[in-house]
Amino acid sequence: MSRTLNTTPAIDGFWMPGEFEPHAGTWMLWPERLDNWRAGAQPAQRAFAAVATAIASFEPVTVGVSAAQFGYARAALPEAIRLVELSSNDAWMRDVGPTCLVNARGEVRGADWQFNAWGGFDGGLYFPWDQDDLVARKVLEIESCDRYRAPFVLEGGAIHSDGQGTLLVTEQCLLNPNRNPGLDRQQLEQLLCEWLGARTVVWLGQGVINDETDGHVDNLACFARPGHVCLTWTDNRRDPQYAVSADALQRLQSARDAQGRRFTVHKLVQPGPLRSTVAEAAGVLQAHGSQARPAGHRLAGSYVNFYLANGGVVMPLLDARRDAAAMAVLQRVFPDRQVVGVPAREILLGGGNIHCITQQVPASLRRASPLRRRRG
Ligand code: KQY
């Protein structure tokens, strides 16, 4: 059973755990829209299947798929991966799926954000998005988790939590008038704290160059564990990403988390810069109202867009000249996890990466509540 609740998570003692904490499993969606994925979406489907297969070696994976694609997806995915028929408008489970919350007793509930395709009619990426907006509710029904329906727009890729009261977000995304035009920074902070059980919001500025989500934090920076943040980086001062990442670094260095700690920042040098080719651009159907994908466009590639599975890090392989170095950094940052790379350019061509296409359900465990801890 999944009830819809009228309270808010923090009042009920729920908070968003860190992604690095144990999971019950991962959810994904199957890509098929021809105005986002090239060549009949088949290259993307192979990439998604490789991601699902890699994650399934660490934890259970469920993939939602349309009725029309069920047979193809079933043939492409190992039997151990659960496939469920689930309508959606595209395949970004991080953003359309629930943000799962936990309490001290080990119960799991879900926040179901309002979704407007990353900006609605003011820069959003497609219309309609009605099926996407129902995905979180359906996932929570299947998982038998109670649901909080949020009164504001948010995406899972726009927030990271350290599970101890600290959130990472970007101004570019959260303060964008195409999300919640009536809310200012202070009101948003209050809502985030109420809905994610947090006490401290660390605001980064801009996201990765050309990130079509208006700068989701999950492509720029993430928590490796409490007090430790991975940040996409370039040493090339002439690259526009330099100013963005340097600003984020400076903000992280001057911030404190909810426990009063300073952050240790792990730099992950960006791939490329990568650009789409003529052949890649030509393979995408041009449709009215959808995101244009012209040849030569700089892609928002980032190694920070990885997924933390139980005992694993599933990272995107994006640039043969830089993949090994990124993998080595991640292996140093996560010495107790196996780092697995999956070729992910086809996912990047659709506008996101491995973190954007996955959404974890936390394990049901007793935990210490950050809601009770006080800053020392
Ligand atoms: O970054 C994400 N969390 C999602 C990317 C969406 C791209 C849509 N084309």
Could you characterize the architecture of this molecule?
This protein is an alpha/beta fold. Helices cover 24% and strands 23% of the residues. It contains 10 helices and 17 strands. The chain has a 4-stranded mixed beta sheet, covered by helices on one side. A 4-stranded mixed beta sheet has the order 4-3-2-17. The protein has a 3-stranded mixed beta sheet with strand order 8-9-10, with helices on both faces. The mean pLDDT is 97. 6-aminohexanamide binds at residues 36, 92, 94-95, 125, 157, 212-213, 216, 218-219, 291, 350-352, 356. 6-aminohexanamide binds next to helix 3.
List the helices and strands and how they pair.
Blueprint lengths: L3 E2 L17 E7 L12 H15 L4 E5 L4 H7 L5 E4 L7 H4 L2 E4 L5 E7 L17 H11 L3 E8 L6 E2 L4 E5 H4 L10 H12 L3 E5 L16 E5 L2 E6 L6 H15 L9 E6 L8 H5 L24 E3 L2 E6 L5 H11 L4 E6 L1 H5 L9 E4 L14
Parallel strand pairs: 1-7, 2-3, 3-4, 6-7, 9-10, 12-13, 15-16
Antiparallel strand pairs: 2-17, 5-6, 8-9, 11-12, 14-15
The structure holds 6-aminohexanamide (KQY).
Hetero compounds? 6-aminohexanamide
Total helices: the number is: 10
* Proportion of residues in β-strands: 15-25%
What spatial form do the alpha-carbon principal axes imply?
globular
State the distance separating the first and last CA atoms. 40 Å
Helix content: 10-25%
Strand runs, count? 17
Compressed to H and E, one letter per element, the order equals EEHEHEHEEHEEEHHEEEHEHEEHEHE
Question: Any low-confidence stretches, pLDDT <50, length ≥5?
Answer: none
Radius of gyration: 19 Å
Mean pLDDT: 97
Strand order of the largest sheet: 1-7-6-5
